[in-house]
Amino acid sequence: MRNGLLTVFKKELARFFSDKRMVFSTVLLPGLMIYLLYSLMGSAIMNKFSADETTPPLVAVFGSSDAVEPMLSQSVRLADFAAKEDAMDAVRAQTLDALVVFPEDFDAAVSAYEIGSSAAPNVAIYYNSTSSDSQAAYTLLDELFSGYEATLCNKFDINAGGVGYDLASDTDETSSFFSMLLPMLLMMFLFSGCMSVAPEAIAGEKERGTIATLLITPISRSQIALGKIMALSVIALLSAASSAVGTILSLPKLMSGAGSISGSLYSASDYLLLAAVIASTVLLLVALISIVSAFAKTIKEAQTLVTPLMLVVMFLGITAMFGNRASGNSAVYLIPLYNSVQSMVSILTFDISALHLLLTVGSNLVYALLGTLVLTRMFRNEKIIFSK
Question: Can you give the pLDDT at residue 372?
């Protein structure tokens, strides 16, 4: 049995690695494209939403305030407009960052104002939210005027200094970010990796007519099924690893404004546990896609039949976004594919349960073995294998 299994295993790997174009498109291209795409997205987002911090905002002021004008002149560049309407048009055209309009006799009105007696004097700040520079100018002016207002009737402070009140650690921020994003991405990468090779190896053999040659060899159908699943799993893992590496390398660029988020907080043991979950998940996915592909007459038909499974995998990956922690219910870790998502979340949130990980990896291996047995029976059914 061992020799037959290794023969099929080597045959599938040789078929794949002998085709340089297939190796490039399946293993190298996904990671490269993801890295370039995410890096470009990160650069575009930063350019879109980052204001120019080297130059003070350009602001027009109508009305006057002896108390506020010194602060304004130190924080912004003042622009001269003859009419307020012209300044508003300039803000709309994004040639002016903001327009400040003081009410008449602002300082006197502020001094005479009594809380609750009437409407308080209002300073209008006009800005354009579609411009990052204008948005930054509004934020600066709002903080400046809020600070000035606080000096007039400030009875107490709230979070004075602004440092030390947020109790979230770097570990909390990192685990929250990665546990929300990576399970979905990894499940999609794993599925796409399996999808790129499994239909070719099963439905492709049927379409080319080479499945008959393989089945008449002195190798049992179970060895053929298991050998194909093992070889396809290795190839799918390489494809998924390429995509995952491309994503991890591009995340610093994509999330350049996300503060202290860093994958360096995870240890080698965390990555090994994640690899175990991924490997068992790939075996299950390859078995499922191989079974579906065995029903198909052509590669194109196999890809169509696998679409519902793809939607299920995507949905299960998205569920990682709906909670901060992995489920504590052990029965959840017996549910195919969903258990993998939950185990990934538990690893990425540093909330690892040995029992849950064993249930996930063990059940995935059992389901993959059952899938291999189903595929073996399908190989023995000539109506399925030789369907036209």
Answer: 86
